[in-house]
Amino acid sequence: MTSAGIDPEVLELAHRVFDLARGGATEELAAYVDAGVPANLTNDKGDTLLILAAYHAHAETVAALLARGADHARVNDRGQTALAAAVFRQCTDAVRALLDAGADPDGGGPSARDTAAFFVLPEMTALLEAPRS
Asked: In the chain, fewer beta carbons within 10 Å around the N or the C end?
């Protein structure tokens, strides 16, 4: 056990799955979640697997995590959501997946809508404002 009381093997697994989310290793990450790794696993900065996948523009990984129950409304320690991260990275498919899952364009702070406005991303603004079916 480490001084924090966490088994080093558990820490290694956590680091591995966060790296998979960052790297867009969808199948491998999905297998870990299917085997019991929490879909809403959060690191020391409050980043979830979903936020990391969205920030690194891995739309397929975002979709896989959403399908496995990842919470699109979670915010990290800076108030950022997966949707704001996807907007910032201009990842259209991830933005669509998050919106289709019910993500709120005005959630978090800065919100996805604020992010699109601040960085002058008209395509992202249009996606956020488009009617959802």
From this structure: C
Could you read off the pLDDT tens digit of each residue along the chain, which spans 133 residues?
A: 444 677 889 889 999 999 999 999 999 999 999 999 999 999 999 999 999 999 999 999 999 999 999 999 999 999 999 999 999 999 999 999 999 999 999 999 999 999 999 999 999 999 999 988 6
Domains and CATH numbers, the chain: 8-129 (1.25.40.20)
The three state secondary structure string of 27-93 is HHHHHHHHCCCCCCCECCCCCEHHHHHHHCCCHHHHHHHHHCCCCCCCCCCCCCCHHHHHHHCCCHH
Find tokens 């008209």 and name the residue.
122
